[in-house]
């Protein structure tokens, strides 16, 4: 199955570069390009892509608001935010808006392709080099105005799994930590997302921080 991608960036050269990288793979295809967030929302509605590569800083409608509109529309598209070091605070806002992950813009072509595939599958995609910095410094300092989803429906084991997701552990790492099979962990993750009404693992990371299951590290 070919994964359909929309690329949203206000720089034509950047969009062209991403298109060349993506279209060179047999299982990926760029089905649309947007130069601002409003156009990205409209293309997502019309083209029904699997993944939207979303720049944060764009004219007219920025990437954060576009991400929010896509998430609230009920679209199946997952948004992968592209960012640089100087927009960490905006990354947090994008995660809260419904982004499924973020990457640095200087990512290598092979890593970008892998990121698109991972995001389409619903796996967490948080650039390791910026994950701790972003979450620890900003997420707890910028609480979501909406209350986090209640945890009372989670079992004790599911709460454990949510805590470890909040630490950005993979299913394999969680399985090793809890001495469970990966299949069992996957079932627990699915149950956590369903019970909390979350789109994916990235939203589960945000929920874990919001509930204090994971605490920011002190500098």
What does this 3D model show about the protein?
- The chain is α/β, with parallel strands linked by helices.
- It folds into 2 domains: 3-139, 3-Layer(aba) Sandwich (Rossmann fold), CATH 3.40.50.2300; 156-210, Winged helix-like DNA-binding domain superfamily/Winged helix DNA-binding domain (Arc Repressor Mutant, subunit A), CATH 1.10.10.
- It is 51% helix and 14% strand.
- The chain is built from 10 helices and 6 strands.
- The protein has helices at residues 12-23, 37-47, 63-72, 88-97, 109-121, 128-139, 156-166, 171-178, 182-196, 201-210, and strands at 3-8, 28-34, 51-55, 78-83, 101-104, 125-126.
- Strands 2-1-3-4-5-6 form a 6-stranded parallel β-sheet, with helices on both faces.
- Helix 5 (109-121) links the parallel strand 5 and strand 6 (125-126).
- Helix 3 (63-72) packs parallel to helix 4 (88-97).
- The longest helix is centred in the last third of the chain and has 15 residues, at 182-196.
- The radius of gyration is 17 Å and the shape is globular.
| Major sheet strand order | 2-1-3-4-5-6
CATH superfamily of the largest domain: Response regulator
Q: How many E-type strands?
A: 6
Q: What is the arithmetic mean of pLDDT?
A: 85
- Pattern of helices and strands: EHEHEHEHEHEHHHHH
Question: Can you summarize this structure?
Answer:
The protein contains 10 helices and 6 strands; from the N terminus they run βαβαβαβαβαβααααα. The protein is of the alpha/beta class and 219 residues long. Pfam families: GerE, Response_reg.
Layout of secondary structure:
Elements: E1 3-8, H1 12-23, E2 28-34, H2 37-47, E3 51-55, H3 63-72, E4 78-83, H4 88-97, E5 101-104, H5 109-121, E6 125-126, H6 128-139, H7 156-166, H8 171-178, H9 182-196, H10 201-210
Parallel strand pairs: 1-2, 1-3, 3-4, 4-5, 5-6
């Amino acid at each position: 199955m070919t994964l359909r991608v929309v690329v949203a960036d206000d720089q034509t050269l950047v969009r062209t570069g991403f298109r060349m990288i993506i279209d060179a793979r047999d299982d990926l295809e760029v089905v649309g390009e947007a130069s601002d967030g409003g156009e990205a929302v409209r293309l997502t509605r019309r083209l029904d892509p699997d993944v939207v590569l979303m720049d944060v800083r764009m004219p007219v409608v920025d990437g954060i608001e576009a991400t929010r509109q896509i998430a609230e529309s009920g679209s199946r598209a997952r948004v992968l935010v592209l960012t640089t070091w100087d927009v960490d605070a905006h990354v947090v806002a994008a995660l809260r808006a419904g982004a499924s992950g973020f990457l640095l813009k200087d990512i290598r072509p092979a890593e970008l392709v892998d990121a698109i595939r991972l995001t389409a599958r619903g796996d967490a995609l948080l650039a390791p080099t910026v994950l701790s910095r972003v979450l620890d410094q900003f997420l707890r300092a910028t609480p979501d105005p909406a209350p986090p989803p209640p945890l009372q429906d989670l079992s004790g084991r599911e709460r454990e799994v949510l805590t470890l997701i909040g630490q950005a552990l993979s299913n394999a790492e969680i399985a090793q930590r809890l001495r469970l099979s990966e299949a069992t962990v996957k079932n627990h993750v699915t149950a956590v997302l369903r019970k909390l009404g979350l789109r994916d693992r990235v939203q589960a990371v945000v929920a874990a921080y919001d509930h204090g299951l994971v605490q920011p590290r002190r500098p």
